Amino acid sequence: MGTNLIRNLIVLTVLVISGPLLAQPVLLERIVAIVDDDVILSSEFESRIIQVKNNLERQNVEMPSDEVLTREILDRLILERIQLQMAERAGVRISDAELNSTLTNMARQNGLTLEQFRSSLESEGESYEIVREQIRQDLILRRVQQGNVRSRIQVTEQEVDDYLSSEEGQKKTGAVFRIAHLLLPIPGDAGLDVENAAMKYIEGLRERIAEGDAFERYISAPEQRPYPLTGGDLGWRRETELPGVFVGVVPDLAEGEVSAPVRSPSGLHLVKLVTKRGGSGQLQQQTSVRHILVKPSEIRTNEQARSMAESLRDRVKNGDDFAELAREFSEDIGSAREGGELGWTTAGQIVPEFEEVMNQTGSGEVSSVFQTQFGWHFLEVIERREQDISEEMQRNQARNILYGQKYDEELENWFVKIRDEAFVEIKL
């Protein structure tokens, strides 16, 4: 990289003129590293060091030595510069709308509105505008990484099979239970009459819960009479992590079900399966549906598109073949050739407006015309079913785990590659 280009990138000195004499050059900024056609400045480098140190302190993480910290931060800045130049050449952009959507989701995950999220940052001394641009940069970096790394990764069905049969795979893709329990303590030296009375009481309590009394009310209630109950939410547990006394009970419970009394050395328990992820018996409502889409265009107004969709629906209602009309008129390229059929759909696969109409339409019925972001539709529900998707979910989970492992490995390899291919001159 020529010195003329560097001079064009950043002004290093300023000459102060005083009368006929030139003052000595005053150093304003120092270059820490040259990275291809860009530079890293000392102010940015020092600012990142302060930011990282503050984050480590907030997280109560042991601070590495200054030498290690500065080396790692400089390496990261160099990799960022290389990727940002790749993004610039490829025309990668993050729109304000996409950035706002990302920030809104971040705020929502923290139980805040976007305005509250902004106020929270500013109350901690952070600049919202700076954080906003950092997130924009992170999104650009992620897109560049995915675009260059994703195509290098393949997960075969054999790899999925092998993973599912491994000890790690069985552990990570098995059922996970969220459970809560109530305990009625019984002293170790209690007589049979005390134990029988306690059993009668907790069986009655279970009956009241089955009839609609809230299980959680007894967890949070003050000391009950005649017995003081304890317990609480035990959180998410894999089958191998369940308390021994619950192992033979929890897997057989349906979601929301409360077990029969379980005896342990501590006393009598009632166990509730709050919810469950993975494992067998994962039933999902699916709908077989077909539709016809008419889009507004430069030669068709929105009202004309709606009118055309109404006309096509009338033809279906009067006996014309839905599939033939879809092949001829539907502007959904993905489904028109299939007679408008979308196959078996599940919750979350399609836009909310379409899903809402689909859910309100009976099997064999044709909906009214409705609008989504894509245009004007009407649909026909062909059939509904409950499908056990346990195996499919388990395989998808295994595939995602394997993909994540390969992605991390390939990303590191790619970092090494682009670093080796770049021109980097460190000026520290």
Q: What does this entry look like structurally?
A:
This protein is of the alpha+beta class and 428 residues long. It is 48% helix and 20% strand. Among the domains are: 1-82, Orthogonal Bundle (Triger factor/SurA peptide-binding fold), CATH 1.10.4030; 175-277, Chitinase A, domain 3 (Roll); 283-388, Chitinase A, domain 3. It is built from 15 helices and 15 strands.
Task: Describe the SSE topology.
Layout: H1 3-9, E1 13-14, E2 17-18, E3 21-22, E4 26-27, E5 31-35, E6 38-41, H2 42-58, H3 66-90, H4 96-109, H5 114-123, H6 128-149, H7 157-165, H8 167-173, E7 176-185, H9 192-210, H10 215-220, E8 230-238, E9 262-264, E10 267-277, E11 283-294, H11 302-317, H12 322-329, H13 333-336, E12 341-345, H14 352-360, E13 370-372, E14 375-388, H15 390-421, E15 424-426
Antiparallel strand pairs: 1-4, 2-3, 5-6, 5-15, 7-8, 7-10, 9-10, 11-12, 11-14, 13-14
Helix pairs in contact: 2-3, 3-6, 7-8, 7-15
